[in-house]
Amino acid sequence: MKENTENKGIQTMNAEEKGSREMFTTLYSINLQGSTETRDGLTYLTWSKAWKLFKQFYPNASYRIMKDPATSLPYYADARTGIMVHTEVTAGSHTYEMMLPVMDNKNRAMRFEPYTYQVLDKSTGAFIEKTVQAATMFDINKAILRCLVKNIAMFGLGLYLYEGEDYPQNITMEGEEQTNAAAEQQQQQQTAPSSWRLETAGKPVNTARYKKVMDALNAAADKQAFWKIYWDHKAEILGNPEIKELFNRRKAELGLA
Asked: What are the Cα distances from residue 104, in Å, to 6, 43, 111, 188, 244?
């Protein structure tokens, strides 16, 4: 009897895990074109649309905005590093947490006091000083809602928008969300170079061996496609100096340098 009970429990657990995997795949596969908004060249899934879509699959889903136990305020603040918000989403049998710093429109961490930083002006070769303004409650509220959207993405919905956020090596980009608008992609495809001469130090790359990577890099027309190629061919890119140089050159062509 005990053995039958244990087997039944295992079968139930396996069914739950299978259901969770299938739900994740379903949510991840949803094409969000038409549900996103583009601002400053970045694509966002708004919190209201994210929650609406999510509740269609998980009607009993709930979320919680975590508060600093020391202050009972909906954020955690450090004078040196900035302000962090924290959310929690429960759906089905899973609960996921997410944290996000409060950021300005350049995705620089904000504090309660303004501060400056230096960036290189490529046109002059000199460093210029920029200012990050002090955070307001509006900025904190916006960060909480962005954190909620990222929290929902942990279940699969819109997760692909964040792929490429953890940039390889020294590569930096302004913005987390990856461009997904069809019109912009079409425009970039029209302006992308039709062919790419693949030579490094005067030596041609073995085109037969690396044709798949080369063709993929040539076809990449936006940030999302570019970073997908990196993760799909990471070993080939990092393991071959010629392909690595090609990767960096293509990065520059797309304005990601």
From this structure: 53, 16, 10, 27, 33
Confidence of residue 91 (pLDDT cuts 50, 70, 90): very high
Q: How many CB atoms lie within 10 A of CB 81?
A: 10
Q: Tell me which residue of 26, 25, 23, 47 sits closest to 36, measured CA to CA.
A: 47
Instruction: Give the Cα separation of 143 and 191 in Å (integer).
Output: 35
User: What are the DSSP E strand ranges found in 92-206?
Assistant: 94-101, 115-121, 126-132, 199-200, 203-204
**Is 62 within 8 Å of 90 (Cβ atoms)?**
yes
Q: How many CA atoms lie within 13 A of 215 on its CB side?
A: 6
Helix (H) or strand (E) holding 29: none
Q: Please give the backbone phi and psi of residue 83, each rounded to the nearest 5 degrees, phi first.
A: -120, 135
DSSP state, 149? H
pTM over 0.70: no
> Is pLDDT at 119 greater than 60 in this prediction?
yes
Amino acid at 201: A
Computed over every residue of the chain, the mean pLDDT equals 76
Per the listing, tokens 């210029």 go with 128
Burial 135-147 (b: 16+ CB within 10 A, else e): beeebbebbbbbb
Q: Judging by DSSP bridges, how do beta strands 203-204 and 199-200 pair with one another?
A: antiparallel
- The amino acid sitting at 167 is Y
